[in-house]
Automatic annotation (TrEMBL):
One of its GO terms (molecular function) is catalytic activity. InterPro entries: Cytidine_deaminase-like, DUF1893_TM1506-like, Hyp_TM1506. It comes from Candidatus Gallimonas gallistercoris. This is DUF1893 domain-containing protein.
Length: 138
C-alpha cells in the first residue's frame, strides 16, 4: 500500500492525514487551520502524501506551498482542482463542487473567497494569514 492509500485510511474520523514513509501527521481542526499551523511551525512537509476532507482553493494553495507530493480530497472545489492542475500537484477526489460553502451554509467559504483571484501559493498564504487575523479581531 502506498503513502496516499495509507493517508486515505488514516483520514477516517479526522480532517487531515499526512504521510511520508513511517511519519504520520493526523489533525482534527477544521478548515485550513491544520495546514496553516504546520506551515507556521516550519514543519517540513516536502514529499508527504495528504488526504483531506474538504479542499477549496485556499487549502490547495497551502498544499502547493508545502510541496506535498500528492493529494486526495473527499470534496474539492473546481477552483482548487484548477489550481492544483496548474501547479502540477497530482490529486484525486471523491466529489467535486463548484465552490466550498461557508459554515453557515449561506455562501462561499471566506478563505476560498480571500484567494479566489490569486494564482500564487506564496501570495495566497499571505492573504490567508491576513484574512485569519482580520477574522480574529472581529
Amino acid at each position: 500500500m502506498n503513502d496516499l492509500e495509507r493517508a486515505k485510511e488514516g483520514l477516517n474520523g479526522h480532517t487531515l492525514c499526512l504521510l511520508r514513509g513511517e511519519e504520520v501527521l493526523i489533525r482534527d481542526e477544521r478548515g485550513i487551520a491544520p495546514m496553516m499551523a504546520l506551515l507556521a511551525e516550519g514543519k517540513d512537509l516536502i514529499g508527504f502524501s495528504a488526504a483531506d476532507r474538504v479542499v477549496g482553493k485556499a487549502a490547495a494553495m497551502l498544499f502547493v506551498k508545502a510541496k506535498i507530493k500528492e493529494l486526495f480530497a473527499k470534496t474539492i472545489s473546481r477552483s482548487a482542482a484548477e489550481f492544483l492542475e496548474k501547479n502540477g500537484l497530482p490529486f484525486s477526489y471523491r466529489t467535486m463542487t463548484e465552490y466550498i460553502v461557508n459554515r453557515d451554509g449561506t455562501g462561499r467559504c471566506p478563505m476560498e473567497s480571500a484567494v479566489l483571484s490569486c494564482n500564487d501559493a506564496e501570495e495566497g498564504y499571505l492573504l490567508l494569514q491576513q484574512k485569519l487575523a482580520s477574522m480574529r479581531s472581529i
